Amino acid sequence: MTSNRERRMESFRPIVGIDLGTTNSAVAYIAEGKPQILPSPRGERIIPSVVLIDPQGRAVVGEDARAALVAMPDRSLAAVKRRMGSTEPLLLAGQALLPQEISALILKELKSYVDELHGEGDKEAVITVPAYFTDEQRRATKEAGELAGFVVERIINEPTAAALAFGLDNLENDQTFLVYDLGGGTFDVSVVELMSGVLEVRASTGNRMLGGEDFDWKLVDWLAERMIAEHGVDPRDDLRARALLKEKAEDAKKLLSSQETVSLAIPLVTVKHNTPIGLHVELTRTTFVSLIDAQLLESMDKVRQVLDDAGLHAANIDEVLLVGGSTRIPRVSELIVDLFGKAPRTDVNPDEAVALGAAVQAGLKSGALSDSGLVATDVAPFSMGIAVLTEGRLGAPRAGGFAPIIPRNTTIPVTRTKRFSTSAPGQTAVSIEVYQGEHEWVKHNHRLGEFLLEGLPANYKSLEPLDVTFRYNLNGILEVTAQSPANGKAMTVTVQDALNRESKEALQESAERLQKLWDQAPAEEPDDLLSEQEELMELEQWLDEEMDDEERTDEESPTVLHEEAQLLIGRVRDQLDQLESSAKTRALREMERLEQAMEAGDIDRLQQLIDDMTDFLIELEL
Ligand code: AMP
Question: Residue 265 burial (CB < 10 Å; 0-12/13-18/19+)?
């Protein structure tokens, strides 16, 4: 008899598909001809994309790290995907790490699940990115994969991955579908055609700064404004209070996908004049939708644009697939129904579709799915070109015009050459500035890099021609060549080379640094990172620090203590009906003691009881 695990081992190929998400990540592989999620040893099918460097200096990734976001905001980091492509390091537990290094830790965690099945060592991976990711964001993702010890076989677009997973299950049905992918940090939409097993992305667009994270922060702002109005205190100024509100906002947002109203009761958000300040508020789905509707409507404008780009109407779309956790917001389905006149498919798992599709791509590469007959093509979702001199409004030449070389929605891989010329007689060097975007002026587009082609023949009679070639590969990574047809002088750069970002040695050093952080981790599964007791201690310490920050001189004044005690009593009284019987008994006892100490004018005891009551409030929050 072979066990399930052994069976999985037998059919397992060491090339996996990875969804490296803003909020959650997952790894999948092909087994028995089907894509399957590879769960963590604890059985989690997706893990939070959160990294913590714990007080022992070890890297912790996933649920334990997520649980520490509030207790240890300076040691933990979420949503690093939003920083990918930036060269600015992020501070984590006092260490400066680049976004791709932090992402590499998430990928190392996922790799450890693969290693558990297949032994340590290099593994190949297909990693997904939002279709609308820029060149440097794609490179950073590839680098993260390499730093984690993967051979990155391919970077593919998330909506294309979701389409691949769906396509594999629906090979028999020729159809045109639309993938609406709204995750934690990014939005993508693609029109895909499936015809006799050929899956062709017809058009794709998106917004790399639109997702559930933005909705959480809108809600945090709304909650903070209530606290400012009620207490004159902005909780966003306090790192821990901010993290707490973000966590509560996300919880409330998720609940509002299945219920109309949510009661938010947070006994302790921050501290003002030594007094704990909480938040009690009712939030309706209607209010929440009013906060995010402009962004959802913006996403629908992109849907109209992608239909237009594909030369189709809403009526030509057979199915709409919803991918990404934020599509659980009922307003999204409502908007889809308004436009398409039909409900989206409900059989696609919005959290897993992208990882499963990445595994399908991995299976096509490894041969595990070569019998399926599925073939896929993708497009470049944005135009790429160079800066040129163009005619201004008054007819005079003006710098900064955009000349596209690869127009958006061109099927990839693609190579295109365009002939330009120098801008002045006798010019022997040309600076080539590379941009992506759709605007006629480069200043509104995204700059990818710049390089200099020197050694052109000095031509004083006329302008010298120049051929610029763009090669956009299957990973969505660009290579640019500029060549003088007169003397054959050529210069080829990948855009990253042009930016001269990372040397091999720097990469090696970085990999070693990450390995050290990783090696600190205990071999066995870590215990729950913080016991409730430890969390309570952390919170207490924070409260003490907050109070230290406030003027402690007032603290011992009998009037201040009396006011504080009264406030605490009032707050607990407000909560009484919601308490379980044992908590209620304790609350009543503590309130009575406080009242007695106030009557007796026993300042020391009053201070002690205030501390006890504050602890009790914290416990209620736990
Ligand atoms: P993804 O990047 O696809 O993992 O999506 C994660 C995003 O989906 C996060 O912003 C989550 O808060 C959000 N999300 C998950 N579940 C829900 C839900 N039930 N309602 C609204 N948003 C959700």
Answer: middle
User: What is the Cα–Cα distance from 508 to 568, expressed in whole angstroms?
Assistant: 56
Q: Decide if pLDDT at 525 tops 60.
A: no
pLDDT-derived band at 521 (thresholds 50, 70, 90) equals low
In this structure, the residue with its CA closest to atom 18 of ligand 1 is 254
Out of 253, 260, 285, 349, mutate this one to test ligand 1's pocket (max ligand atoms within 8 Å of CB): namely 253
H/E segment holding residue 323: strand 319-323
Query: What pLDDT score does 138 carry?
Result: 94
Judged against a pLDDT cut of 80, whether residue 497 lies above it is answered with no
- Point out the least confidently predicted range of 189-198, 438-447, 579-588: 579-588
CA pair distance 593, 360, nearest whole angstrom: 65
Q: What is the mean pLDDT of residues 321-344?
A: 97
Angle at 367 between CA 365 and CA 372, to 5 degrees: 100
pLDDT band at 552 (very low <50, low <70, confident <90, very high): very low
* Sequential DSSP letters for 116-129: HHH-SS-EEEEEEE
User: How far apart are the CA of 148 and the centre of ligand 1, in A?
Assistant: 26
| Domain boundaries along the sequence of the chain | 384-494, 553-622
Find the residues whose C-beta lies inside 6 A of ligand 1.
21-24, 183-184, 212-213, 250, 253-254, 257, 324-326, 328-329, 351
Sign of CA dihedral 217, 222, 227, 232: positive
Give the number of the atom of ligand 1 that is nearest the alpha carbon of residue 258: 19
What are the pLDDT digits (tens) for 24-52?
A: 999 999 998 999 999 999 999 999 999 99
Pick the CATH number of 384-494 from 2.60.40.10, 3.40.50.1820, 3.40.50.720, 2.60.34.10: 2.60.34.10
CA-nearest residue for atom 9, ligand 1, is 184
